Amino acid sequence: MTKLLMKGNEVIGEAAIQAGCYHFFGYPITPQSELVAYMAKRLPEEGGTFVQAESEVAAINMVYGAASAGVRAMTSSSSPGFSLKQEGISYLAGAELPAVIVNVARGGPGLGNIQPAQSDYFQATRGGGHGDYYTPVLAPFTLQETIELTAEAFRLADVYRTPVVLLTDGLLGQMMEPVVFQQSSTPVQTESHNDWALQGTGGIRAPRSVTSLELNASGLEKRNLKLQEKYQLINQSEQQADVYFAEDADWFVTAYGSVARTALSAVKHARSEGVNVGLIRPVSLWPFPTETYSALCEKTDQILVVEMSAGQMIDDVKLSVNSSVEVVFYGRMGGAVPDPEEIFDVIIENAKGVPKK
Amino acid sequence: MKAEIIIAGFGGQGVMSIGQVLAYAGMHAGKQVSWMPSYGPEQRGGTAHVSVVISDDAVDSPIVSVPSYAVILNDPSLEKFLPKISTNGVLLINSDCITSEVERKDLYIAEIGASSIAAAIGNERVSGIVLLGALVQMTSLISREDLTKGLADVFGGEKQHLLAMNEAALQAGERAAEINFTFPII
């Protein structure tokens, strides 16, 4: 297996192609532009379709069109552009279309800056657009895991006929690290979707429509009930999390994405100084891995949530544990990235019964 | 082993490429590596830096708070990173670009006139590679063989024409370190 040193944004592009995605609609914005550039170069080589759209809104609606025809389709952006795509994502959810949307998040609100941030958590995990819907949200923390979760995003999209969000940030998008692509000799099996997709009637079957419009209230309520049933199924079946030092930890730090890497460094450092702390890392942000947290409630009386935001995931953590667990928070905002020493100091401060530095 | 390296200077001094050469060299040595650039407005005019981690174990944080090695190419970067370098860390300086005094006594410091050496080879832009040559001569961070491979990874293909000059810069850096420094190899 050849190890390649690649940039995070490019890894997502290659992983998507290897997952059988040959339709990409992009619009540049820092810090995700390398992904658009990579697809512009690679997709023609693979006989795929790359379109540089005129805006983020156009790109997400092109995804709607491609997904309606039953092919794997993707678009990507960074925070302000991801906001622009929300209307389209709501339409995709309403029409039950599979697609993958990448958000390489940056500092906000507004135009903000181009540094890494996690302040789009609420938007990503609560649907983001209008209407009662959720999208599965996956948050890789290494570039190797980015490959796996890109493929997993397409699987979820196909199986549940839903848009799926891959949420990373500027740090994971810009950094390089070695990755291995498991080259498969057989093409990826994707769903044919030929029971609903718009692939031509062939002059035989009746015409179909793919739409989120349903003017009749009882009809739309029925459609909503079906969606909610699907979300419940996803919630039951697709929670993903990793726990580090679960066996002997007295309490836990929790973080996702790039911050989980920094937190893991800090946790290991703290353990080397006698602090019995572990790390809970949600991999799926929606569905939130509540089962992992509630299972650990028994053995921990404190969870320290670390985020690059004012505190968003902390709400889900609080909803997942009982009131006996004290949930404390440390966050940085606006593109400020906590470093390992900084998180280590916070751990030491919060470690009960351990002498402070 | 785990080496946490900061390379910092002005945008255009080759900071990012030097970091990539080290990351590739680390890969060739069978190590785990990460390369994390500073990106954004600070690259234009101000300081740009890259954090490289070379480690036996998986790299958790690609962010380096306490570098064990620092390669510094301008004054603002020296001011920013000098206080952060770990005790007994290695500090490599391009003395042609730096006017300030280094006021730490607990570091292995090498000051090399990398710009003049690079200019003598034919292009001042390879000054960073001169420093890499010095680094490989003075420390056991990576082997010369792996560094040469890393150089070919970054300056191969379309940049093939730069390879000979970069190789010359590496050799000049090695010589400079050999002649000017007598402290034990670390």
Largest sheet of chain A: 7 strands, mixed
Low confidence ranges of chain B? none
Number of helices of chain B: 6
Computed Rg of chain B: 15 Å
Cα-to-Cα separation, first versus last residue of chain B: 13 Å
Query: What oligomeric arrangement do these chains adopt?
Result: heterodimer
Helices and strands of chain A, in order, run as: EHEHEHEHHEHEHEHEHEEHEEHEHEH
Shape type of chain B: globular
According to DSSP, the number of beta strands of chain A is 14
Structural class of the helix and strand makeup of chain A? Answer: alpha/beta
Low-confidence stretches of chain A: none
The CATH class designation of chain B is Alpha Beta
General description of the model:
- The complex is a heterodimer of chains A (357) and B (186).
- Chain A has 357 residues and is α/β, with parallel strands linked by helices.
- Chain A has helices spanning 8-18, 33-45, 56-68, 79-84, 86-94, 121-125, 143-160, 170-174, 217-237, 257-272, 290-296, 313-320, 340-350; strands spanning 4-7, 23-26, 49-52, 73-77, 99-105, 137-138, 163-169, 176-179, 241-244, 251-254, 277-282, 284-286, 302-307, 326-331.
- Chain A has two domains: 4-195 and 229-234, Rossmann fold, CATH 3.40.50.970; 241-350, Rossmann fold, CATH 3.40.50.
- A seven-stranded mixed β-sheet of chain A has the order 3-2-4-5-7-6-12, with helices on both faces.
- In chain A, strand 6 (137-138), helix 7 and strand 7 form a beta-alpha-beta unit.
- The radius of gyration of chain A is 21 Å and the shape is globular.
- Chain B is of the alpha/beta class and 186 residues long.
- Chain B has a single domain, classed as Pyruvate-ferredoxin oxidoreductase, PFOR, domain III (Pyruvate-ferredoxin Oxidoreductase, domain 3), CATH 3.40.920.10.
- Chain B has helices at residues 15-28, 75-81, 114-121, 127-138, 144-154, 163-180, and strands spanning 2-10, 32-37, 47-55, 69-72, 90-94, 108-112.
- At the A-B interface, helix 8, strand 8, helix 10 and helix 13 of A face helix 1 and strand 2 of B.
